[in-house]
Design brief:
The protein is of the alpha+beta class and 306 residues long. The protein contains 11 helices and 4 strands, in the order H-H-E-H-E-H-H-E-H-E-H-H-H-H-H. Helix 2 packs antiparallel against helix 7, helix 7 runs parallel beside helix 11 and helix 9 runs antiparallel to helix 11. The protein has a 4-stranded antiparallel beta sheet, sandwiched between helices. 75% of the residues lie in helices and 8% in strands.
Length: 306
């Protein structure tokens, strides 16, 4: 196929989009609806995932150290903790600091009573450990228990398991929603292009009768699908952005009262735009190829009767 032929076919694709603008608008609206639903669902899932991440960071493991542990033993222990896989952060909390924090939470009279009661600090030194992947929680705790000079370990195994289950459930729901909406988009785009093909069956018949290849006939429809996909993706991003900002403003008081922070949409806009355009092109081109493939496979029997 020559360069001039390709230019002609791309020009035909743009012309067909404008000529059949009512069906093009219908396709864009349908695809936009699916993409907007995908985008809104994605932002909801991202905010939930961010919230789960903050909860996971608060679900720390406290490792309390034996009182007779020397400074060199503490240093070696911290090194060993950092070498354990799946440990994200290790923070040493001196017993003096922990005790002062406890006193700061008490009323002044109570704090003075406990201070005068004994000069010894009733708390041990400790390490505050943040675990990276909670699905490996049990293995990580078992590795920590193998270390020396540990008095007790305080951890919340049940909460870790619940957080992992919630995260997996959200991932499954997100994949199912995206897959269903993507399938719906391809189906509707295919049917829209099928109407376009049917309305132009005589033109296609003439092209085939003069020796046009299937690729030559198919390319304008593929270009048309690409155009519809790109337009849908760009407009959908703007709509999702608008809906998201509107929702944040409406629920601002609730978000602040729960001490939550909504994600900034601008941080995800370029990625979402690329995903929307890619999905739009995929559904538009995919619908065109599927529809034209079926039609051209049967065109010998159907066009002969035109």
């Amino acid at each position: 196929m020559t360069a001039s032929s390709i230019r002609y076919l791309f020009k035909e694709g743009f012309r067909n989009t404008w000529t059949n603008r009512m069906m093009s608008i219908a396709s864009i609206c349908v695809l936009m609806s699916c993409l907007v639903l995908m985008g809104c669902a994605t932002m909801i899932f991202l905010n939930i995932d961010s919230l789960l991440g903050r909860i996971e960071e608060e679900n720390v493991v406290m490792v309390y150290i034996e009182d007779d542990t020397t400074a060199s033993d503490l240093k070696q222990m911290e090194k060993s903790l950092n070498e354990i896989r799946n440990i994200k952060e290790v923070e040493f909390i001196a017993k003096e600091v922990a005790w002062q924090q406890q006193l700061d939470t008490m009323e002044e009279s109570h704090a003075a009573y406990f201070t005068e009661l004994s000069s010894e600090i009733p708390l041990p030194n400790a390490y505050k450990i943040t675990i990276d992947d909670l699905s490996l929680f049990d293995d990580t705790i078992n590795n920590i228990k193998k270390l020396d000079h540990i008095e007790t370990i305080r951890e919340n195994k049940d909460l870790a398991k619940k957080l992992v289950s919630i995260r997996h459930g959200i991932e499954i729901i997100a994949v199912v929603i995206v897959a269903v909406l993507l399938a719906i988009s391809i189906f509707i785009i295919s049917n829209t292009i099928k109407l376009t093909v049917y309305s132009r069956r005589l033109e296609i018949s003439i092209m085939k009768s003069v020796g046009a290849t299937n690729g030559f006939v198919r390319l304008p429809f593929v270009v048309e699908g690409m155009i519809l996909g790109i337009i849908s993706g760009v407009i959908s991003l703007g709509l999702v952005w608008g809906f998201y900002e509107f929702a944040i403003r409406q629920f601002k008081d609730l978000i602040n009262s729960l001490n939550l922070t909504a994600l900034n949409f601008a941080d995800y806009s370029l990625v979402m735009l690329g995903a929307f355009v890619a999905i739009g092109i995929l559904t538009g081109v995919g619908g065109s190829i599927i529809t034209m493939g079926r039609y051209l496979n049967k065109e010998g029997s159907e066009i002969s009767g035109v």
